[in-house]
Each structure stands twice: as C-alpha cells, then as structure tokens.
C-alpha cells in the first residue's frame, strides 16, 4: 500500500466515523426535539402535512451518505468485495442505531426504519460503485485497477 493510499484510507475512515457520529447525535434526540426539528423543516418546505415522509427521507438520506462513505473507505482496503463489506458495516450500524433508540425517551426501535436505513445504505453504496466504475473508465482503464 502506498503512502497516498494510506492517507486516503485514513481520511475515508474518518469520514465514516464522522457520519456515524452525526447519525448517533440525531438518534440521541428525544421525541420532542426530533419532532420539533422535523416540524421546522416541513414548515420551511411549506409541506407541514408530510412530516412522516420527511422523517423517513432523513433516515434514508443519512444512511445513503453512510453507505457511500463506507463503500469508499472499504474500497481502500478490500478491492474486490467492497460492496458486501460496505453493506454489512452499514446494516450493522443501522441495527445498532435502532437499538440505541430504545434507550432514548419517546423513541422506538422499528424494523421498518431498519429497512429504510438499509435501503438508503444500499443506494449510497450503489452510487459509490457507479462513481468508482466511471472514474476508472475515465482514467482509461478497462476495469478498476484498485487505485481509488
């Protein structure tokens, strides 16, 4: 592994940990704080009747970001099987996030939310894989040479 790959791997892992911290922070908000934030955002969008949809979109989006970042981080260390590894990490974090919410006042552990989280992670991973493929083609390679 080159020095450049080590540095990019460290930065990628730090981005994943930062994203996980952000998700943990949002999941740590009690029900009233979380509802207030969703209501404010819905008001800004002039879409107050769709708070539940916004909340599910937030779950999907934060885990799409996590999946994307995790795929890029894992790609630095595992060249061929980075997609299943990134999904396993993201899904495990989604499970722990839902369990964490059991201990937050007014929040709950929901299997549906776990599914939304995993769907978001999968979308983010698919986007990362597409970007990796396209960048490798732009560099002139016929297939990914593993130098991300």
| Overall mean pLDDT | 84
What class do helices, strands and sheet pairing give?
mainly alpha
Radius of gyration: 17 Å
The H-and-E topology, N to C, reads as HHHHH
Q: How much of the polypeptide forms β-strand, as a percent range?
A: under 5%
Oligomer: single chain
Low-pLDDT stretches are: none
Percent of residues in helices comes to over 70%
Globally, the shape reads elongated
Number of DSSP-assigned strands: 0
How far the N terminus sits from the C terminus, by CA atoms, comes to 12 Å
How many helices does DSSP assign? Answer: 5
Q: How can the largest sheet be summarized?
A: none
List its traits.
mainly alpha, single chain, 148 residues
Architecture overview:
Helix 1 (3-28) runs antiparallel to helix 3 and helix 3 (51-75) crosses helix 4. This protein has helices spanning 3-28, 31-44, 51-75, 82-101, 111-138. 24% of the residues are buried. The protein starts with a helix and ends in a 10-residue tail after the last helix. The protein is an all-alpha fold and 148 residues long. The protein is elongated and about 50 Å long.
């Amino acid at each position: 592994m080159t020095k450049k790959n080590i540095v990019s791997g460290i930065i990628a892992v730090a981005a994943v940990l930062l994203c996980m911290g952000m998700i943990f922070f949002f999941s740590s908000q009690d029900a009233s704080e979380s509802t207030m934030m969703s209501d404010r955002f819905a008001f800004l969008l002039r879409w107050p009747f769709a708070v539940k949809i916004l909340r599910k979109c937030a779950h999907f989006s934060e885990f799409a970001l996590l999946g994307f970042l995790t795929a890029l981080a894992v790609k630095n260390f595992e060249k061929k099987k980075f997609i299943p590894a990134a999904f396993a990490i993201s899904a495990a974090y989604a499970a722990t996030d839902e369990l964490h919410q059991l201990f937050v006042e007014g929040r709950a552990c929901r299997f549906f939310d776990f599914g939304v989280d995993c769907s978001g992670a999968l979308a983010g991973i698919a986007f990362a894989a597409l970007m990796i493929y396209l960048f490798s083609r732009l560099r002139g390679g016929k297939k990914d040479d593993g130098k991300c």
